[in-house]
Amino acid sequence: MNINASIIGANGYTGLELINILICHPDVTLKYVTSRSDQGKKVSDIYPSLFSRCDLSFSQADYDKIAQESDIVFLALPHGASAAAAKELYNKGTRIIDLSADFRYQNLNTYEDTYKTSHPCPELNSAAVYGLSEIYREQIKKARIVANPGCYTTAAIVALYPLLEARAIRADNIIIDAKSGITGAGRKSDINCSMSENLENFKAYSLTNHRHTSEIEEQLSKANKAPLKVNFSPHLLPVKRGILATIYCDLFDQDKDIKAIYDNFYQESKFISVLEENRLPELKNVTGSNYVQIGFIKDKRLNKLIVVSCLDNLVKGASGQAVQNMNIMFGIEESRGLDFIARYL
Amino acid sequence: MNINASIIGANGYTGLELINILICHPDVTLKYVTSRSDQGKKVSDIYPSLFSRCDLSFSQADYDKIAQESDIVFLALPHGASAAAAKELYNKGTRIIDLSADFRYQNLNTYEDTYKTSHPCPELNSAAVYGLSEIYREQIKKARIVANPGCYTTAAIVALYPLLEARAIRADNIIIDAKSGITGAGRKSDINCSMSENLENFKAYSLTNHRHTSEIEEQLSKANKAPLKVNFSPHLLPVKRGILATIYCDLFDQDKDIKAIYDNFYQESKFISVLEENRLPELKNVTGSNYVQIGFIKDKRLNKLIVVSCLDNLVKGASGQAVQNMNIMFGIEESRGLDFIARYL
Amino acid sequence: MNINASIIGANGYTGLELINILICHPDVTLKYVTSRSDQGKKVSDIYPSLFSRCDLSFSQADYDKIAQESDIVFLALPHGASAAAAKELYNKGTRIIDLSADFRYQNLNTYEDTYKTSHPCPELNSAAVYGLSEIYREQIKKARIVANPGCYTTAAIVALYPLLEARAIRADNIIIDAKSGITGAGRKSDINCSMSENLENFKAYSLTNHRHTSEIEEQLSKANKAPLKVNFSPHLLPVKRGILATIYCDLFDQDKDIKAIYDNFYQESKFISVLEENRLPELKNVTGSNYVQIGFIKDKRLNKLIVVSCLDNLVKGASGQAVQNMNIMFGIEESRGLDFIARYL
Amino acid sequence: MNINASIIGANGYTGLELINILICHPDVTLKYVTSRSDQGKKVSDIYPSLFSRCDLSFSQADYDKIAQESDIVFLALPHGASAAAAKELYNKGTRIIDLSADFRYQNLNTYEDTYKTSHPCPELNSAAVYGLSEIYREQIKKARIVANPGCYTTAAIVALYPLLEARAIRADNIIIDAKSGITGAGRKSDINCSMSENLENFKAYSLTNHRHTSEIEEQLSKANKAPLKVNFSPHLLPVKRGILATIYCDLFDQDKDIKAIYDNFYQESKFISVLEENRLPELKNVTGSNYVQIGFIKDKRLNKLIVVSCLDNLVKGASGQAVQNMNIMFGIEESRGLDFIARYL
Q1: Which superfamily does CATH assign the domain made up of B152-313 to?
Q2: Predicted ipTM?
Q3: Pick the CATH number of C3-127 from 3.40.30.10, 3.40.50.720, 3.90.226.10, 1.10.150.170
Q4: Domain boundaries, chain D
Q5: D284 close contact with A: CB closer than 8 A
Q6: Which end of chain B is more exposed for a tag (fewer CB within 10 A), N or C?
Q7: Which of A179, A208, A231 minimises the CB distance to B202?
C-alpha cells in the first residue's frame, strides 16, 4: 500500500515529529509540508537532524493541490485555524486528522466555553471521531475526519476510562496531578519557555482552568454513563518530553482486580502497557515511543487507588497517535511505522 | 556572641550545606567536622567550592573533645547512629540538633514501626523538641535537643498545620503530591542517582509507604486535635534541589479567607511567604534560600482547596532550618546568617 | 537473510543500545544476551523501556552454545575480559565484533602502554580489523573479528583522516577539544556519575593522558603516512548522550577546498554528513542516530582550520557502528536497521 | 559607610544579580532600579525570589534624580544605549560602572569595527578604566567611570595575562576554547534560548567572529607588550550559569614554574584561586560566587600548556565584578558583600 500524506502547519514540534515518523513509515509518501512563516525554507534547514533525510521544503497551503495529491492530511494548526482548513479540505474529499482541539468535543457549547470562540464549522464537527485509538478504534476505521486527542487528555483517559466503565472507582473524587515536559508548549519564542527560566525549576500552572479539563470530563462522562467532574492540575517539568500523571481516586471495593480490568479493556491494544500492581512506570520507559505505561497501587489505609500513567506528549500524545489513527483508517497494522522503542537513555 | 559549633557526619550534602551556612554565620565558629569515611581529608578537597574558604579537615568523632569545645553539635548521621551519638553528647552537656529521624516522633511505636528498629535511647526522646521552627519556636528556645524535621514533612506541615488548626479543611481527604530534587537522596554512589538514569526522567516512588508519612500525620494530628491520615505521594524531579508539594483537600466553607489564616499563623515568621490567592510559587523562587513559599487556589467546582508549598530541601528542609533552630536556641535573631536570597537562576 | 546474533556483557548501556537496534533490525534474530551480574533477570526488568518488546532474559555466557547458535557475537565487556572471550569464541568459529579496546591497536606495545596490561591473545590481534566503517569498509567485509573504535576516536578520526591524507593540514599542531555526555562513562554506581554532582556542572578531565589519545594517533599516523601526535582534551557535558569535538589545526593553504576533500572521501558514506563551510553542527542533530555531522570554518587571521565533529557516543560511537560493521560483514546494505532519525528534541 | 546605588536597565539577568548582591551588601542602599519595559512593576513581581526582600519597583530613568541621589550608578544597558546614558550621568557628577562594551576599548577603531557602530562619546572613553579588578586595581580606585569586562574576556584574561607578562608562553598560538551557560545570552524571548532547543544539546557558535575576541586581544597585547591575536571559540553549554575556558598555548620552557607566576601575580587577589599543577577546576566550584578558579597542566609530549579557567558569568563575569569594582572605588574591603560561597550543588 502507498498512502500519500501531507501536513499543514508542519514547522512546529508536532509537525517535526510527524515528519520523522512519516518519512520512515513503510507505506507512506510524504507529499507536502506547509508553513506560513517558514515557507520556502528547506525542512532540514529548520531541523538539521533531517539533513540528508528529507529534501522537502515548506510550501504554502495550496489546498486544491494538496487535496488532490494526498490521501490523508494532518492538520497541525492552532485551534480555530484548524477547523477552517479542515472545512476546505473536507469538501475537496481528502481524509483528515486534526491535531488541534477543534473537533474534539461532541458538545459544542463546551468547546466554545473552553476555547472562548465560536466553532467555525459545527456541521463538520458531528462527522468527526475522537481519535483515542484504543477506545474509538471501530469508529476511526470509518471516519473521514479524526480529532486527535490532547496530550494530557490521552494520559488521563487511558488510565481512567476502563476503571469508570467497570465501576471500580467513585466518579466524584478524582484528582489528576499531571506533569509535562516543555515541548508541550510548542515551538515558541517565549521567555517562559527559556532554559534560563526552566532548568532546575518546577511549577504548577493553570490550576482549576486548564483547557484539557473539559475534554477529559466529556470523555470520562461517557465511560461513567453520567456527567462527572475531575480536578486536573498540570505542572511543568524541566524535561523536554513526556507526561506523567498521578491519579488519585476512591475505590468502591479494595479487593477489585484492577489489573484484570485493564487487561480486559486493552487486550487488543499493544501500545498500552499495564504493569503489575505496585510496579510504577517512569517517563524514560516511554519517551520517544508510542507507548503508554500504566502502573497502579492501592492505598488501603485510605481506600484509594493511585494510578500512574505516562506517555510521550509528542508521540502518543500527538503525532504518534495521529499516525496510529491513520493506520486504522487505512486498514493497515495499527503499529505500522510506530514500533520504535522508548529511549530510556 | 560567639557560638562554637561542630558537625558529626559532615561529609554528606546536608553537612556541606551546614558548613556553608555556618562559616558565613557572623556569630558562629565552626570547630569540628567529622566523617568516618573521609577522615583526615581536607573539606575543600571533597568540596572544592570551599577552596580558600574552609581550612578544616574531617576528623574522627572524639565526643569528649567535641562536647567540651562546642556549644552546639549538629548530627548529620543515619537514623539509629544519630540517636546513639546524641546520647553520648547529651550526657556530656552540649546542646544538640539532630537532622535524622531519631527524635522526631513523640510516639515511639510509630517511630519503631516506621524505621523498623527499636529506639536506642527512649529516655532522651521525651526531652527532644520537634524543630519545625515556626510551630515550636517557644519550646525550641528552651530545648537541649532538637529533632530537625524531614524535608518533605516541612513542606507539608507548614502548608497544612494552620488550615487544620483553623478547621478550614476536612481532615479525611488530604492528598499530598510531592516532588523532590535528587539531593534529597543524599550523596550516594548509586546507579539510581546517576545522571544517565535521571536526566529527562520523572517518576513516582514509595507510594503509600514513604517514611515521612507517619511524621506528617503525627504533627498534623496535633493541629487537628484528633488523629488523621493523609495520602503522601513522593516523586523524583530531574533537578538537584527543591521540593514542591501540591496538596489537595476539601474545604468546609468555600468563602473562608485562607490568606488570613496563614497570615495570622505566620505573622512572626519571616521565612514563610504566603502569596495572594491564585498566585502560585515555583521552585526557583526558593531554591538556595531558607524560605518556604505557599500559594493556594480554590477549585470551586469541586469544593477543593489546592495548596502549593515549596522550599529547598537542603536549606529549609534540612540545614537552614537547623541553623534557624540554633539561632532560636541561643536567643539571637532567627534569620541571623540565613538571609541569602533564592537563586531564581 | 537471517543473522543470529548474541551479545556478551549485554546489561550495560552499549548492550542496551545493541539490543534496541538488533530487535528492530529486519535481518537479525537476537539469540542470547549474557550478563554475569544480572543473570536470570528479564531484560525488561532492568530496562522497562523494553516491556512488551523483548522477552529475553540475561543468561550466563555459555560459549559453546552461543558460538553454535550465533552467526555473530558482540562483545560488550571491559578490556582484558573481552580479548579472553574473543579467543574462546573465535576458536569455535563465530564472527566477532568487539566493542572493547582489546583489538584496536596494530601496535601491541601501544596497547599495553595505554591499558597497562599485557594482551591476552596477541595472535588474534593481527587478524582483527579496525572497525571505523567508512575507512576500513573493504577489510571489514572479509574480517572474522572487528575491533569497534572508541567513541571519541570515531569523532576525531572521521574529521581528521581525510584532511591528513589529502595533506590539507599540518600534522604537528592538532588540538582536539572534545566534550562528551555522561553515558560515555557507562552504567555505574559512582558518585562521580550522580546527577547531584553533574547537573549544571562542566569539567575537563584526563587532560594529556586519556586512553583514546593513542588510538587516535595510531589511526591518524596512517592517514599521515608518518607518526604524529595530537593533543586530545576530553570534557564532561551535563547531557546523557553525544560527543562534540572542536578540532583546531593549521592549514597549509587557506584556499584549499576542504568541502571537496570530505565529499570525495565520504562519497559512499551516507552516515557522514558534511555541512557547507561556515555551518556548524550541534549535538541534537545527531543524538539518537548513527550519523556523524561535520562542520568547518577557516580562521583566516590565524591560518587555522576549525572542524566541529559530532555523533552519538552510544550509536555511531559504539553500538550503531558495531551493527554497521555487522551489515558490512554480512554483505547487506550498510544502513540496514540503522536508519532512525536523530532526536533533535 | 553608606553608598547610595542605582541600576539603569535593571530588569535583565545582570540587573537581577546586581539587585541580589546590593540589597545584601552591608554598606549599600539601593535607591533606583530602572527599566523601560517593566516600568511601574514591582521587582518582586518579575523576580518572585525577591518576595519579601525587595520593595522597589522598576522606575523610569530620571537621570537628574538618580544622579543627585546616587553615589554610584550601574549601567546594565545594551551597547550604544549605555554610552549615551553614561554621558548624561557623568556630566551630572555621579560615578559610573558600565556593564556594556561601550567603554572597554582604548582603541576606538577596534570598538567601532567590532560593534559596527560609531562611539557616542569618544571624549568620555579616555576617562574610563577597564574594570578587570585584579589587573587595574590602582586605576579603578581613582576612576569615575569603570568599564566592566565581558564574561568570556574575564575568564580568558585572568588566565593568560600573567603568563604573557612573564613570557612563559608564546603569543602566537593561543587557542581559547570557551563554554558558557545560557544566561550569557541574557533574558530573552528567543526560540534559540528555549529549553526545548537547548536541554541535552551542545554547540559551538560565532567561531572566528565573536565580539569578545578583540577585547581579549587588546588586553593581552598589553600583557605581551606587543600586538597578538588569539583564536577564541565559544560554545553553548546546557547549563544556566558559568563559563569554563580550556586554553591551549605553547611553552617556551617546560620547566617554568607556572604556579609561582600566578601566585606572584595574584598574591593580593582573594577571588582568584589557582589550584596546584595537574588539578582541574569545575564549574560547580565557582557558580554562584565571585571566584575564578584556574587549573593547569603541561602536555610535555607537545610542549604545550593547558590552562582551565572558570567563573560564574553573572557574578565575576558581570555583576559580582561590578560590585568588586565599586568596593575598590569607594575604598572599602574588595570582597565586601561578595563573600558568598560557590554552589557546588
Answers
A1: Dihydrodipicolinate Reductase; domain 2 (3.30.360.10)
A2: 0.97
A3: 3.40.50.720
A4: 3-127, 152-313
A5: no
A6: N
A7: A179
